[in-house]
């Protein structure tokens, strides 16, 4: 594939600096026995230990900034590119990027796919994107999908986020096949039939130990976007009627997305939000997964389908985002973008300013309206510019993400939720 890039800097000639640099994050060596370092990684967004989510939150932050027409800090972009291993993959965090990756470096598909989407969006790093895509293709499973780490069974979330990376870089997922199976084949294998009493139309994260598919709300949001060939950033789809689940002899991915959207609509109907699947937090709102559901519903059937959870997020998500940091602000920006909502007045919160303040000050923003600026940018042709790991890693992630960060969290938390 010929990766073509666009230069945001060239498109945004007139800029005004907004936001302020946040306090630097505390670095940590990515080993279970290491204690946090006092040396702060230059350019990283957020102030919490990046051991489990550094690349993920950086990627989402850069992607969200690009989505609203903000030109990210070059230091922030360099921080992300420096995290790449020589084989093209990304781990959640490398404390010392000057040291080569080895068999103990916990590279994974999710962080790699997120980095691809972010670096494609900001432009100027076609070589990094090419190498990352090459690595993702090299670890594709025989069923056409991807697991979180190389060699692990495919799951709906990982397969969906990689599909997003492929389509974002103008690669047709149907052309990326293994053993005659495409990523869509793998993804549809996780879709529950409509005839099922509980979880009809939903996606499972993976089959359980008995091979059964159990509905998982976050996997369902991911599955909707993956089935539609959408990435983390998605536009509102064509308006459709009331959501309903309908089986077919040979279900298309569009039908699977519609069925999954119907499941999300039913699940959200009670409270307007999803609930956490983490142990000890039953019935607690899951803000990140709710934001993912807003993007999925809007992408599948237009903004009206996402109105109720969007309203709930506007009213309730500000405190969560302030506690959770850049990835949370990014997820809310994606929800605002998908629904045509102003991210600078999201329930009274300026999500863009809040995000910018969590890291190095961006280079600036377009002088004209950011929505039209981003539309102009995305219509331009993109141009070229200059080992599986142990159980401790999954435990660490669950400790770090006690309040839910959507796609990333559910990829490490395999507990099924109704």
Could you describe the 3D structure shown?
The chain is mostly helical. It has a single domain (about 10-30, about 45-410), classed as Alpha/alpha barrel (Glycosyltransferase), CATH 1.50.10.20. About 45% of the residues lie in helices and about 0% in strands. It has 16 helices and 2 strands. Strands 1-2 form a two-stranded antiparallel ribbon. It is globular. Mean pLDDT is about 80; it is low at about 1-40 and about 365-418.
Task: Please describe the topology of this protein.
Blueprint: H1 8-11, H2 54-67, E1 70-71, H3 74-82, H4 109-122, H5 126-138, H6 156-168, H7 183-188, H8 217-227, H9 253-268, H10 287-301, H11 307-324, H12 326-339, H13 351-356, E2 364-365, H14 370-379, H15 391-400, H16 407-412
Antiparallel strand pairs: 1-2
Helix pairs in contact: 2-3, 2-4, 2-12, 4-5, 4-6, 6-8, 8-9, 8-10, 9-10, 10-11, 10-12, 11-12
Question: Tags for this entry?
Answer:
two-stranded antiparallel ribbon, 16 helices, disordered C terminus, 418 residues, disordered N terminus, mainly alpha
Outline of the structure:
With 418 residues, this protein is mostly helical. Helix content is 43%, strand content 1%.
Determine the structural class based on helices, strands and strand pairing.
Answer: mainly alpha
**Stretches with pLDDT under 50, minimum 5 residues:** 1-40, 367-418
- The total count of helices amounts to 16
Percent of residues in beta strands? under 5%
Q: What would you report as the Rg, rounded to the nearest angstrom? A: 20 Å
The rounded distance between the terminal residues' Cα atoms is 40 Å
What CATH calls the topology is Glycosyltransferase
């Amino acid at each position: 594939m010929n990766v073509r890039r666009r230069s945001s800097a060239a498109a945004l000639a007139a800029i005004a600096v907004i936001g302020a640099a946040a306090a630097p994050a505390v670095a940590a060596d990515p080993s279970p026995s290491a204690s946090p370092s006092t040396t702060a990684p230059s350019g990283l967004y957020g102030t919490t230990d990046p051991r489990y989510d550094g690349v993920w939150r950086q990627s989402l932050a850069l992607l969200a900034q690009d989505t609203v027409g903000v030109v990210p800090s070059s230091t922030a972009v360099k921080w992300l590119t420096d995290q790449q291993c020589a084989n093209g993959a990304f781990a959640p965090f490398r404390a010392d990027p000057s040291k080569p990756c080895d068999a103990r470096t916990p590279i994974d598909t999710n962080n790699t796919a997120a980095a691809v989407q972010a670096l494609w969006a900001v432009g100027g790093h076609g070589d990094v994107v090419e190498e990352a895509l090459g690595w993702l293709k090299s670890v594709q499973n025989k069923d056409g999908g991807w697991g979180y780490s190389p060699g692990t069974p495919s799951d709906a979330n990982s397969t969906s986020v990689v599909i997003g990376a492929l389509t974002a870089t103008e690669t047709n997922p149907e052309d990326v096949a293994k053993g005659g199976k495409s990523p869509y084949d793998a993804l549809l294998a996780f879709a529950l039939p409509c005839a099922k009493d509980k979880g009809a139309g939903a996606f499972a994260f993976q089959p359980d130990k008995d091979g059964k598919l159990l509905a998982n709300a976050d996997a369902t949001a991911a599955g909707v976007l993956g089935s539609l060939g959408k990435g983390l950033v998605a536009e509102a789809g064509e308006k459709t009627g009331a959501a309903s689940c309908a089986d077919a002899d040979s279900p298309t991915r569009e039908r699977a997305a519609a069925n999954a959207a119907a499941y999300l609509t039913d699940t959200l109907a009670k409270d307007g939000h999803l609930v956490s699947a983490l142990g000890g937090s039953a019935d607690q709102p899951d803000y990140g997964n709710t934001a993912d559901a807003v993007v999925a519903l809007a992408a599948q059937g237009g903004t009206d389908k996402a109105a109720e959870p969007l309203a709930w997020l506007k009213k309730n998500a500000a405190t969560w985002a302030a506690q959770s940091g850049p990835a949370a602000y990014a997820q809310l920006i994606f929800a605002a973008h998908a629904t045509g909502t102003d991210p600078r007045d999201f329930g009274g919160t300026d999500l863009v300013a809040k995000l910018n303040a969590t890291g190095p000050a961006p280079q600036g923003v377009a002088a004209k309206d950011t929505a039209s600026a981003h539309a102009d940018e995305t219509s331009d042709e993109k141009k070229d510019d200059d080992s599986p790991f142990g159980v401790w890693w999954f435990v660490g992630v669950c400790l770090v993400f006690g309040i839910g960060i959507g796609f990333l969290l559910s990829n490490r938390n395999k507990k099924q939720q109704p």
